[in-house]
Amino acid sequence: IQNDWGYVRWADKLGHFAVNDFWTRLYRSSMRWSGLSERDAALWGAGLAFVNSTYYEILDGFGPRWGFSPGDLAFNVAGIAFAAAKPYVPALQPFSVKLSYVDSGWANKNLIDDYQGQPYWLVANLDRLAPEVGFPEWLGVTVGYGARGLDDLNFLTESHVYVGLDIGPEIIPFEGRFWDVLRNGRSIARLPAPAVRITPDARVFVLAWSPQ
Fold first, then answer.
1. Which of 43, 61, 155, 184 is 20 to 30 A (C-alpha) from 170?
2. Cα–Cα distance between 147 and 158 in angstroms, integer?
3. Which DSSP letter does residue 189 get?
4. Do 210 and 114 touch, CB atoms closer than 8 A?
5. Residue-level pLDDT, tens digit, the chain, 212 residues
6. Distance between CA atoms of 97 and 25, rounded to whole angstroms?
7. Rg from Cα positions in the chain
8. CA–CA distance, 89 with 111 (Å, rounded to integer)
9. Would you say 163 and 135 are in contact if contact means Cβ atoms under 8 Å apart?
């Protein structure tokens, strides 16, 4: 057992949350596409995501360089719970979690482990937050977090925080179960959009994508 709370300045934990939110939604919409009821699809979606993620956490526990991480499991469960509860809790429905990625050049790191190139974004859909205003249904505001800056021990040293705009999957103009599955696949990826970096110093980006 290895409780790695501070690993890569929390980017890893946010990744566990975001990925399990995504898998829960994808499993649920796939179950709906196959003909299950909303309730059964929601239960299967959460259950399959939990089994899938817990398998890998247990596998880590037997790895010679790793360990079973209670923190990883906690953020897995939090991401699953967020996605499972969202259709039934109105206060959660305007919010979603996304990620983006650009290869950072971190030596010997693949897409999954390259945390320098993986910012995570909490998005609030403006139309759902304030439907009386008349915002486009695909427009959102977002807060992003990424980590950069390798030291001599190969640890990340800088936290990058952003605020900006977001373009949501609602921009896809079609309806039906098949398109719902595509929306869930598209909804995890944030398209490049304007943002302001707050830390480690202020900077404006016309198109913010990876930590910069």
1. 43
2. 6
3. B
4. no
5. 888 877 888 889 999 999 999 999 989 988 998 999 999 999 999 999 999 999 999 999 998 888 899 999 999 999 999 999 998 999 999 999 998 888 888 878 888 888 888 899 999 999 999 999 999 988 999 999 998 888 776 788 899 999 999 988 777 666 776 766 666 656 778 888 899 999 888 999 888 766 56
6. 11
7. 18
8. 33
9. no
**CB atoms near residue 45 (< 10 Å):** 24
Q: In what order do the strands lie in the sheet with 203-208?
A: 95-99, 120-125, 139-150, 156-167, 193-199, 203-208
Look-up: residue for tokens 């016309």? 206
- Residue ranges with strand state E in the chain: 95-99, 120-125, 139-150, 156-167, 193-199, 203-208
Nearest alpha carbon to residue 180 among 172, 188, 168: 172
pTM of the model: 0.87
How many angstroms from the chain centroid is the CA of residue 60? 21
